[in-house]
Specification:
Layout (H helix, E strand, L loop, with lengths): L5 E7 L3 H10 L3 E7 L25 H10 L3 H7 L3 E4 L4 E5 L2 E2 L10 E4 L2 H13 L4 E4 L2 E8 L4 E8 L6 E5 L2 E4 L7 H7 L7 E4 L4 E8 L10 E4 L8 E8 L3 E8 L9 H9 L5 H6 L3 E2 L4 E3 L4 E4 L11 E3 L5 E2 L7 H20 L7 H23 L5 H6 L2 H14 L6 H11 L11 H8 L1
Helix pairs in contact: 1-4, 1-8, 2-8, 8-9, 11-13
Bound molecules: flavin-adenine dinucleotide.
The site of flavin-adenine dinucleotide has 38 residues, from α1, β8 and α8.
Length: about 450
């Protein structure tokens, strides 16, 4: 721990971005208060404040590696809780361009875990909330910022259940980590601050998810299986993942408002419409152990804080509250971890001055970090939006898109190529690595 800079930091929202931020802040503040609107159980549970919690959450390898830096016991804790270790080069099978991609016969080091979202969150929470200077105020909902257009000095919150108790909590720094449904723009407007512009790329994807019991005799050689979508015509996707407690998460997705149904026989019928029959074959032999749960608020939504001319100091925004990505690319957990690292760098840069830094500088640094993830998700989803979106793509983006397609078309027989693309998807390697001469020659062979 550094010598604490300032007295108190408040984090709005005790989910992934909030917990990781609290961990970082605990090194610089005497006290960190996480204000969370939900009642939070000790054990992993789905909760209303995180409506996406029943849905599948891929933990990309880059995200897993970063999370281990925040929670050193992460691997042991996940193993102890029954999470399924996965090598994405060996244990992941994806159906793309009409066939299954080649898998590696040997360990590839592209590791992480497959588990439910509530389990991952619970493991991170256990680690962060045991820090002596971190406390949680819950169930309390933040209703307003306190301060002016030039400086935020705290928050006002109200007890979520019963709505009787109201509190004002002062702070040197308020971090908004309240997710996709953040009210920060309303709060900023109310204190006379400027609000950021919003960018939206909405390909209208809907998920429907059901959990199944895995039988004792299970001969499948994969841990995660994906039947992918492909703009503009293939609007449906299917995702199966082994998770803790010998369960399988089965998710159907439909772009362009072709939402998967919530009734059992219709769910199975939708699965039969996927380009591969395998998803349907697997689930039709298993017993469901949950109802089918839908989620449809999946637009890529970016608040451009970094483009503001002024922003009140003492307030920053992080995680999905700034950049909420379409879930089909599994990047949100990883970008949350990257954002927390940006927070660490920003705090460190100002540590010697014993003051919280300029908020706009933080948002600019954050924008740089999340740009590749935003571009990857929106460039792909834009393919479902036809002419209007194609016009937005730069010629270079279009050329790279075509090149990438040539590579993907060859991954059915080339496990080395499949691994190179998976590494990019897992944010371990830069997309520029795909321009390596060896891959260029494979593409045009
Ligand atoms: C359907 C779906 C599937 C996804 N799948 C993946 C995936 O496969 N891989 C991946 O990496 N990411 C995935 N994501 C993204 C991932 O869920 C988020 O990026 C991640 O949870 C980080 O979000 P966050 O912590 O910023 O916000 P959230 O996780 O949304 O949490 C916000 C928190 O703020 C609290 N809160 C909200 N308002 C207030 C208030 N006023 N006062 C107090 N507390 C408040 C909420 O209760 C909640 O705890 C998916 C998202 C969706 C929607």
């Amino acid at each position: 721990m550094q010598s604490p800079l300032l007295k108190r930091a408040i984090v709005i929202g005790g989910s992934i971005a909030g917990l990781l931020s609290a961990k970082v802040l605990s090194d610089y503040f005497e006290e960190v208060v996480i204000v969370e609107r939900d009642v939070v159980a000790r054990h992993p549970t789905e909760r209303t404040g995180v409506p996406q919690s029943p849905q599948p959450h891929i933990l990309l390898t880059h995200g897993y590696r970063l999370l281990k830096g925040f929670v050193p016991s992460l691997k042991d804790d996940l193993l102890a809780a029954g999470a399924v270790p996965i090598d994405w080069g060996q244990d992941f099978q994806s159906f793309v361009f009409g066939d299954w991609s080649a898998v590696s016969n040997e360990p590839t080091g592209l590791e992480s875990f497959s588990c439910t979202r509530p389990l991952l969150e619970a493991v991170i929470r256990q680690h962060v909330e045991q820090l002596s200077n971190v406390r949680r105020l819950s169930p309390y909902r933040v209703e307003a910022l306190v301060g002016s257009g030039s400086k935020v000095t705290g928050i006002r919150c109200k007890r979520s259940k019963g709505e009787t108790d109201e509190q004002t909590v002062e702070a040197d720094l308020v971090v908004d980590a309240s997710g996709r449904s953040s009210n920060a723009l309303t709060w900023l407007e109310a204190i006379g601050a400027s609000v950021p512009a919003c960018e939206l790329v909405n390909a209208q994807l809907g998920y429907a998810t059901q959990r199944y019991r895995i039988p004792d005799r299970w001969d499948e050689d994969w841990k995660v299986l994906l039947v992918t979508h492909r703009p503009p015509k293939l609007t449906k996707l299917g995702y199966l993942a082994r998770v803790e407690n010998n369960e399988l998460i089965a998710t159907l997705g439909g772009y362009c408002q072709q939402y998967p149904p919530l009734e059992q026989s219709e769910f199975l019928a939708f699965a039969q419409q996927l380009p591969s029959a395998r998803f349907h074959e697997v689930i039709s032999h298993l017993s469901p152990i949950s109802e089918i749960k839908a989620y449809r608020a999946t637009a890529n939504r970016l608040y451009r804080y970094e483009r503001l001319v002024t922003m009140p100091n003492g307030f920053i925004a992080i995680g999905d509250s700034v950049c909420a990505l379409c879930p089909a690319y599994g990047q949100g957990l990883t970008t949350s971890a990257m954002s927390a690292l940006t927070l660490r760098d920003w705090l460190l840069a100002n540590a010697k001055k014993s003051q919280v830094g300029d908020s706009l500088t933080f948002q600019k640094q954050l924008a740089k970090q999340i740009k590749p993830a935003w571009s990857a998700a929106t460039n792909n989803d834009a393919g479902f939006l036809r002419a209007e979106a194609i016009a937005k793509k730069s010629p270079i983006a279009r050329l790279l898109g075509l090149y990438r397609r040539r590579l993907v078309a060859k991954i059915h027989t080339d496990s080395e190529l499949a691994l190179a693309l998976t590494k990019v998807a897992h944010m371990v390697d830069s997309p520029l690595t795909l321009l390596h001469p060896k891959l260029l020659s494979k593409a045009f062979m």
